[in-house]
Structures are given as C-alpha cells and as structure tokens.
Amino acid sequence: MAGTPKYPLNRHWLETRGFRPEIQGLRALALFLVVSYHIWFGRVSGGVDVFLFISAFLLSLSSLRKINEGKPIAPVKYWLHVFQRLIPAAFTVVVGTVLGSFFFLSPARMMSIVQDAIASIFYFLNWRLAFNAVDYYAQDASTKTPLQHFWSLSMQGQIFILWPLIFVVLALLARRYRLPLLPTALAIFGFLFAISLSFSVYETYSPAQGFAYFDTRARLWEFAGGTLLAILSFVWKAPERLRVPAGWIGLLGLVSCGFVLPVEQAFPGFLALWPLCSAALVILAGQTNSAVGVDRLLSSRPMLKLGDISYALYLVHWPVFIFYSSSTHQEHPNFWMGSALILLSMAIAWCIHRFIEQPLRRIGTTQKSTSRVAPYPKKKQLLTSMAVKNYVLPAGVILACFVVAGSALVGAKSHVQAKNDELAGLAEIAGSDDFPGALAIGQGNTEYRHEPIPQSDPHSQYAGIPSGSCVGDFALKHSELAGNCGVEVHGETSSPKIILVGASHVGQSEAIYGQLAEDHGFNLMDMHMGACRFPIEAEPHPDQASDACKTYDSLIMDEVLYQHPAVVGLMITQTDPQTNQEVVVNELEGKIKQFTDAGIKVIGLRDNPRWTQNMFDCALTSLSDLDRCSADVSAKMAEKNPAQSLIESNDLLYSVDLTSQYCPEGVCEAVIGNVVVYMDDNHISKAYGSTTYREFLRQLEEQGLDLMETQN
Predict the structure, then answer these.
(1) What would the mean pLDDT of 675-704 be, rounded to a whole number?
(2) Cβ–Cβ under 8 Å, residues 253 and 279
(3) What's the whole-model pTM score?
C-alpha cells in the first residue's frame, strides 16, 4: 500500500484507441441476423448473444483503460450517459408498440402487453418472461408478446449497472492495494465466467430451460467473456497470417449458428460458446490490411450505416413482425413479404435514429457559454458547467422520458383495466340469451347485440380450482400433493366427493364438474397438475418428465383410493393439434380398473380438438371472417371415440363425448353461440365450458349414472 502508483500502470498494452469500424459492422451483422432469422426463418440466430458480448467487450476496454491511466470510473456519470443514449429510442418503441397493439392485437392481450411495457422501461422484462416461462398456464406456443425482444435489453441494462461497480472494486484493488491490474481482472471475471457458465449449463439442461433462457445469472458468462476478450486484446495480437482466415471462420460460424444449433431450446448453455467464439475470432482478426479480409466487408459504408440504425432496427423489427403475423394469421411471411417487413423496419429505425436518438443524445455533449463576463470565479464556473453537462442534462433527458412514457403507460393500463372489468362481468353471464354458447346449437342462426365473450384476459378463463385449500376435513394423506389440490364445498364435509385427476384438460372441466357437484350437493376436489398427464405413461417421453410429475404420478393413485370419492373424473383420450390422430390415454385401463374395483365410479371425458394457432386470438381478430378459425371435425378428431371398447368393458366407467358441442354440424368453430370456445390453442374457455353442462349431464343420465343413488 505504500507509495502512490505511477500511471499508466501498464505502459505496453497492445490494444489501440479509436473507432473500430469492423466491430461496428460486426454488431450490425449480428443484429441483422436476429432480424432476418426472426422474420424469414422463424428461428433464433444467436446474434443477441453476440450483441451482449460486444457490449461487455467495449465497456471493458474503456473501463480498463481508465483504471490503467488513473482516471475515475465515475459510475454515476457512466450510467447517466449510457441510459441517455439507450432510453429515448427504447421508450419510443415501447409506447408505440402499446399504441399499435390496440389496433392490431386482440383486446384480451392488452393488459399483459401493458405489463410487459412497464417491465421493459424498468429493465426487468427478462425476469417477467422467465417466471412466465415456468408458469404452465402463462405459456402460449402461438402467441408472443410484441415486446418479447426487450428481454435482452433488460439484461444489458442490468449489466450496465453491475459492471461499472465491479470495475470500481477492481480499481480499488489495483490502485490502493497495488495488485496487478490485468491478472486481478482476469481472476475476477474468470471466476464470474466459470461460475455462470457452470450454472447456465446446469439450468439449461434441466426442466427449467425456459427460465434459463431469460435468466441474467445464466448469461453473466457471456458478458464476462467479452471482458476476458478485452483483457486478452491488451496483451496479445493475432499474427498477421492468421487474421484473414480467423475473420472468415468467425463470420461463417456466426451466420450458420442459427441453422445448425437449436438456439431457442439449448441456449444459453455451452452451445452459446459457438456464436461468442465466432465473434471473438472476428474481433481478434481486427484490421487485416488485406483486400480479402472480413474487415473490408464489415467496415464497408453500407455496414457502417446499418450499424448506425442497428439498435433502433432491433427495437422495431419484432413488433412490426408480430403485428403482421397477428393481422394476417400467418406465422411466417414469404421471402418478398419478409423483405418488405425488413425494409419497413429499417425505415422506421432510421426515423427513430435521426429524429429521436441523435438529437437527445447530443444534449449535454457540447456546452458553450453565452456569457461574456463570468459572474463568479472561473474554476467554479467550470465545475458548474461540467456538472450540468455530465449529470444534470443527461438526468433531465432520462427523467423526461420516464415522465412521458410512464404517463402514457399508466393511462393505457387504467383504460385497459376499466375495459377488462366491464368485459369480465359479461363473461359471467355465459348461457344467457345474449351469450348462449353451446345452448344455441341447433337453434339456427341468431343475431346478437354484443360482441362475443370473453374478451378479457384469456388466462382468467381457466376453470381449475385454486390450489391450497385441501386442509382440515379435506387434508391429504400425501402432503406433497397439497400444492395441486383445491376444494369446492357444496355439501356437508361428509358428503360424497368428486375428484378430478390428470393434467390441464381435466382441470378445465371444473366448469362442468362444479355445476354437477353443486346440483347434487357433492364436494369437488380438483387434484389435477398442469402438464402432467395421468398416468405418466401418457406423456410422450415419461422418463423425461419433471420430478414434480413423477412425484404426482407415484402418489395420486394411493391418495384417491384413500379419499375414496364417489366419482373420479379424468380424460380418456388425447387429441393431436396437427392431425386427427386421437388415441386412448396410454396405460389408463389398469388405473380405471383399480378405481372401479374399489367401488369408485369413473367419468371418462373425451378430449377436445387442439389447434396449431391461438384460437382465442383468432376469434377476436377475425370476427368478420370466422371461417379462418374453423376446421372440419374429420381433420381434428377420430371418426369414432377410440375408447369405446374400453368404455364397454367396465360397468362403472361412464363416457362423455362433447365433440358435438365443439364441432356442431361437423365443423369445429372458434365462436359458438356468441361465446369464444377456446382460451388458447387447446384449452376450452370457462365461459363456453359451463354452457356444455346440459349435454354433459344428459349423456351421464342416458348411461344410467344416478348420482343421487351414489349419495345415498
């Protein structure tokens, strides 16, 4: 600690200062790959990983130089200037996307989009998406938020807060304790790299891969990798003879990554090293001074111009694509339409860069005094001027953006909430003359005064009973199942029970079973577990099922037999979203026999049609042309119930087939009787499901099921 360190701490660093045009071009290429892969190919390119990698590389170069030369890191000044640069364009797109969503997207999605917007401006959207990714009922394979791409910007913002603080610690160690700068930096960021990569591999190859994709902790190593490359660039230069091949190998690796690797399913595990190593090769190749070097391409005028708008292009391309897809119900445009969308995105990006980014970025960069005579000492005047330039003006820009965007989003949220409250009230009157649902089947065409219900948050249309209420008189033998058990009490605590067992499709039928239990004074126990079919052999890959599913499967039979309900409700067939291949639930016959041997009656419900598109969104965005949201029943269901022989073999097994309620007159529809049938691409809405109860009860009575006899 003795003595004052002499600066620069290292006098022989190889990294040169100044603008690196090939890195600007590399960043432009990476983000253009993101755009083109999204729009043309419907894939993830790995370009975002490179974008994050380059951000950390450039930040680290600047910070390490400052420490080496004895300059302050000044994290507050850095934060103000970097967010002054990032926030105006980002907030413009966020507010514009929310506004556009009112015109192009289903009104039912608006609250979720507004919540995504709020998460985006406060840089925590990645965590919101991460927690939604592991929430089964928040998933929707055919619908993605138009702000989903802000996950990477949220993560980048978090790193822009964290990294300067780490460099402050590094500066303290290098200056006060005289530790060697680069070896200390290598130790700190090498440790971060190793720990984060190990965690990333573990989380990526666990059932929580969806969470890992958006988890900052699982991607810290990508940023640390950028810092490690910056450290390397200070002490090593690639030999001249290797730079040209290294650059082209890196470029080809980057371009091919999205085609070769399953990025969306396998990142950010070790496979993400592919695009990062590719980018590192291009950066290390640097300026090759060769006519055939990759830097000639990346430093070309078109690439640099693209680099100027690349940030804005990344911001706007995804909402443009989502608006197009939602309006046309086309998952992917053809080449020419895709090209038009990219050109439109580039035009909007240029406008944002020219009229928003550049003017607001310049504020505070030049300050000229208009006063001819300083009214106070020059030193004080200089300090005040610097404070205004470095702190006050950038903070003012950021605050103004928050006020404008925040006010717009608060107003949008209030409007959407009021509308949702109104629509939610209408959804409760399904089965009425205005919204008869399945009760309208066979009644001919009817004109309705209102638009179909429900139109509020589709996830509110899932009919399962909230879990956690199986306590007291309804306490379970196996407490491990309590998190998947809810009770509706319609009789005495000693009244007969109906227990629902299986995955989400049996849970959605609570809209029917709830009425059945209420009408007969039964108590209803909903013990379904989302994404865990019963029995587990019904899963496509039972050995790969989650630990939670395996625990559920191992305990549920014993629990049901212990509870000894009067009736067990379960699914007896499985449909397929892409074909009419409907099959009997695998290994179900033996489970049913165990129930019926114990004197328990079983209701086996035939599955409903499943789809490849979001039927809720299709219905609400195609009210003038609902034929595009329909299909012939022969394309969605087997001609006959494939479980018929199983049903006939067991006198205590009763079958309910509601195909006629979902596909009246042989056509499976999205809206029936002014009620939207589905809440997503495969689950029946609570509003519509409740209107099928009359047919459900009729079929049971026709088969001789006497629940009053069961009660006695």
Answers:
(1) 95
(2) no
(3) 0.82
